[in-house]
User: Which sequence fits this backbone?
């Protein structure tokens, strides 16, 4: 499994959101308070300006508020520097600001700490703004994950589940542990992974009932990875009509990136799920299982499976050659 990667920082959903529409009186009031040094108003006005596209003005306000200890402002400033919002990216500066947020002891901002730690872990893992170091990445994610506590970073918990399935850092029991808590805390990615782990008996005992439950729940929430594995569940259970029906639906997906955006899931996981759907649908068409036999269409969907994820399609192709599919 591949870890979520990319230069963009994750912004916590519970950070104060900008007021998209302020009447003149409200805007004048918040400006007056900001001019008087009220840090919350500086941050709020900065958020408003950011939403309006005034990056320079927002940055100035975040810097003023941050100098006075407003951690939300420092977090947003870290995002601006790291992601290059209204400026060229300055990832090292973004990392420095994240470290400052991660060390905050202020109870009002304690909720930001796990999010900052998660992003520092990603920066270390990818080598953005600091030297690449798996151990430092793991360190930050473990801090952010807070042993599976709901108040920890769910993204870090899920990331640890993926981290411990990598070849170089493999520990399937730890992977199961972190996916279990991440899924319980709302991670769609981990919910699908948990279903697969129960089905295959990876890091836990095989339990088809729990596998089906988790795959269904993740599928209903839009995970194509879970839907693809649910097709596998149906096919191997010889429920060919259900398998063909679900596989057909997955195989019709055209815009993969849009599907990822809608479900907030990883591109690689989504491609794997679509590849599973395409390959199993092709097999159903080839053999006439659960759907009318059509070898021409079968070839089309086999090709699409390889286009989506050659690794997944190759594994299934080998099973087919071994007469295991």
Assistant:
């Amino acid at each position: 499994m591949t870890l979520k990667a990319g230069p963009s920082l994750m912004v916590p959903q519970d950070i104060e959101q900008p007021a998209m529409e302020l009447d003149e009186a409200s805007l004048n009031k918040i400006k007056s308070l900001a001019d008087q040094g009220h840090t919350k108003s500086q941050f709020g006005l900065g958020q408003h300006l950011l939403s309006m596209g005034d990056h320079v003005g927002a940055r100035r306000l975040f810097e003023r508020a941050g100098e006075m200890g407003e951690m939300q402002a420092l977090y947003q400033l870290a995002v601006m520097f790291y992601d290059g919002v209204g400026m060229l990216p300055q990832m090292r500066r973004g990392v420095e600001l994240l470290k400052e947020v991660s060390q905050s002891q202020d109870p009002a901002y304690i909720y930001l700490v796990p999010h900052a730690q998660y992003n520092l872990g990603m920066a270390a893992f990818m080598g953005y703004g600091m030297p690449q170091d798996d151990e430092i990445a793991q360190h930050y994610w473990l801090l952010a994950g807070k042993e599976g506590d709901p108040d920890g970073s769910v993204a870090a918990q899920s990331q640890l589940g993926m981290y411990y399935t990598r070849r170089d850092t493999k520990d399937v029991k730890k992977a199961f542990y972190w996916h279990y808590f991440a899924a319980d805390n709302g991670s769609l990615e981990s919910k699908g992974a948990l279903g697969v782990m129960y089905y295959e008996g990876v890091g836990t005992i095989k339990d088809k009932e729990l596998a089906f439950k988790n795959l269904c729940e993740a599928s209903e929430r839009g995970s194509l990875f879970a839907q693809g594995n649910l097709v596998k569940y149906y096919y191997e259970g010889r429920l060919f009509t259900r398998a063909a029906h679900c596989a057909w639906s997955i195989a019709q997906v055209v815009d993969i990136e849009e599907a990822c955006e809608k479900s907030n899931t990883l591109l690689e996981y989504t491609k794997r799920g679509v590849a599973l759907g395409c390959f199993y649908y092709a097999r159903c068409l080839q053999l006439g299982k659960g759907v009318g036999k059509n070898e021409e269409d079968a070839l089309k969907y086999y090709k699409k499976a390889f286009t989506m994820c050659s690794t997944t399609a190759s594994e299934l192709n080998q099973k087919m050659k071994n007469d295991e599919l």
